[in-house]
Amino acid sequence: MKVSRFLAFLMIVAVFFALAIPSYSKIWNGITLGLDLKGGFDVLYQVKDAGDDKVTQEGMIAVKNAIERRVDQSGIAEPVIQIEEGNRIRVQIAGLFSQEEAKKMLVQSAKLEFKAPDGTVLATGKDIKSNAKYVLDQQTNQAQVSIEFKDAKLFQTITEKYVGQNVAIYLDEKLLQNPVINQPIYGGSAVINGQKDADEAKKLANYLNAGALPYPLDELSSFSVSPTLGAEALDMTLYAGVIAFVLILVFMVVYYRLPGLIAMIALLMYAFLLFAVVRYMHITLTLPGLAALVLGIGMAVDVNIIATERIKDEFRAGKSLLSAVIMGQKRSMPTIIDANVTSIIAGFLMYWFGTGAIKSFAVAHIISVLATFITAVLISRLMLQLLVRSNVIRNTWWYGAPRSIATSGVVRRKGGDKK
């Protein structure tokens, strides 16, 4: 029975490393990095009234949705788009791309109009389905944009009325085409010519599919981070994390012995669990968030230090090995719970009242505290009790007892009598 407990202890360690080592690279490479780690830009817009049409909360949501559609059409992944107080909207986009082109894409109106010879607007981009696409004219080999009207009857009526006349197509008040309608067009499909190449045609199709913004936007502020600077920040933070881990490892093993070693195994589990949660919950990892995770290493170790110090107190009180471990862990729980609950409350307050980087730090902080409960509170305690109950190592010195009271398998009272 005692051997089975030691085997269970070894099994927990073996299963963890068997899972963690092969999947670590996949998890880390799958984490979405924020613009301060990957490079990108942050831009803050002021949403303005459109004439007599005042900005409303519903209008802000419409602007946010329109920007999301534009970003999706461009193929840029994982944008962060947030509505802020004062009718403002913040857009954060990370990755390698032309930042000027991206910012232009966000505010480009793509105002498409079909006009009669007298200038009357016959149809607009609102009458077009969101399925515009680049096509290649098989005869002329020219780039075109294929469009389809929502109401095929509308386009048919226009082409029937203006047979033999020009129906001009304007984009943002610029003439794209001025074709002559030779015959009525049925089915609601048409093509727009005038693009110099496939890239320009694809951009036009994306603008048309994204639709027009319901309100004009004014850029208030913006900043960008180069991919090189982001990579350097990531490397430096990870380097700091590795140094912190090594120093903590040496301290814990030298000062606390077996409980310290178990605490470091639990710490590796903590780091693995933490990054797995970030990866599979699709949380964008920013520099403040990564700093919170590195800070969480110290907090996770602190839980084990509190428990181990309580165990040492029980040794000094003359308790046996198993009794000292059980009572020490039990008496450390109120302190651990109080410390971590107040820390979680602080994290929620930072998230509730903070913005941007503060929110990112708060989310990572909360996740790290919850991961600490699972690894440092539950798993490390289970592993230590399995090792103690197995009786494989009985010398209490290996469990943190001072040399003055530790013997091979027994604890002496201060007066020297055995218990």
TrEMBL record:
Record-linked InterPro entries: SecD, SecD/SecF_arch_bac, SecD_1st, SecD_SecF_C, SecD_SecF_C_bact, SecDF_P1_head
Localisation per UniProt entry: Cell membrane
Entry's Gene Ontology cellular component terms: plasma membrane
Its membrane topology: Multi-pass membrane protein
Signal peptide: none
UniProt domain Protein translocase subunit SecDF P1: residue ranges: 64-118
Domain SecDF P1 head subdomain as annotated: residue spans: 120-214
Residues covered by the Protein export membrane protein SecD/SecF C-terminal domain: 220-387
Regions that span the bilayer: 236-256, 261-281, 287-307, 336-354, 360-384
The entry's keywords: Cell membrane, Membrane, Protein transport, Translocation, Transmembrane, Transmembrane helix, Transport
MF GO annotations: protein-transporting ATPase activity
Pfam families: SecD_1st, SecD_SecF_C, SecDF_P1_head
Any one Gene Ontology BP term: protein transport by the Sec complex
Lineage: superkingdom: Bacteria
PANTHER family, per the entry: PROTEIN TRANSLOCASE SUBUNIT SECD, PROTEIN-EXPORT MEMBRANE PROTEIN SEC
Family recorded in the similarity comment: Belongs to the SecD/SecF family. SecD subfamily.
Record's function text: Part of the Sec protein translocase complex. Interacts with the SecYEG preprotein conducting channel. SecDF uses the proton motive force (PMF) to complete protein translocation after the ATP-dependent function of SecA.
Subunit and interaction comment: Forms a complex with SecF. Part of the essential Sec protein translocation apparatus which comprises SecA, SecYEG and auxiliary proteins SecDF. Other proteins may also be involved.
Name this protein carries in UniProt: Protein translocase subunit SecD
Organism: Tumebacillus permanentifrigoris
Lineage of source species: Bacteria, Bacillati, Bacillota, Bacilli, Bacillales
Record gene name: secD
